[in-house]
Amino acid sequence: MDINQLKEFSRKLWITRKCRIEASERVKKDNDLFQRLLVYYSIILVALSIWDMQSKLNTSKSSLLILISSVALSLFSMFVVSRNYNERYINLKNCYIELDKLYMILKEMENSNNIDSEKLETMVDCYNNILKCVENHNEYDFIGSMLSVPEEQQKISVEKVKKYKIYRCMITLRNISFFVLPIIIIIVIMLL
To answer: Which residue of 76, 92, 103, 150 is surrounded by the most CB atoms within 10 Å?
Structure first.
């Protein structure tokens, strides 16, 4: 391998590392959001149950609403547990830490102009093995990580930037609706 191949591999490794950092942060945020939602929905359900027990309007409709909500909360809880967010976050974090170690070794080789082909091949194998052990990042992780680096921003197409901005808006709307929708549903049902 020559110095250009070394630099290309170094850049590839750096980009992958940045993307895995972005992916780990996305997974961590999702985990935090869903944990908060479970607590929030549980509080709402307990409040509804207490209100229903104390209410003179205790009807089969309100009891059915609480039962349906309890089942929905249980299913949502199972969904959150099945997604293994915390484990995925830790795996992605360990991945980018290992990639960082490789990157530092590559930069040292690059700066010293001492290219050891065998060592580089070993590092490429190590890089591939690290990537095998963890889920891949998604397209939005890639775009987000590239947009965070001024030198890389020009390399992202305008269409991808627009797509990324729409994605971020949709995530924000999703998160807000998770908190607002239950309250709206309760109000609507109470008014019926």
So the answer is: 92
- For the chain, the first-to-last Cα distance in angstroms comes to 73
Tens digits of pLDDT across the chain (192 residues): 677 888 889 999 999 999 999 999 999 999 999 999 999 999 999 988 888 888 766 667 778 888 888 999 999 999 999 999 999 999 999 999 999 999 999 998 888 877 778 888 899 999 999 999 999 999 999 999 999 999 899 999 999 999 999 999 999 999 999 999 988 988 887 776
Decide if 145 is inside a domain: no
Give how many domains the chain has, as a whole number: 1
Residue ranges making up the domain that contains 51:
3-138
Distance CA(89)–CA(84), nearest Å, equals 9
Question: Is residue 88 one of the residues assigned to a domain?
Answer: yes
> Structure pTM?
0.88
Residue that the structure tokens 């095998």 belong to: 132
Report if residue 8 sits inside a domain: yes
Written as six digits, the tokens of 129 are 């093995």
Contact between residue 75 and residue 41 where contact means Cβ atoms under 8 Å apart: no
Residue 192 inside a domain? The answer is no
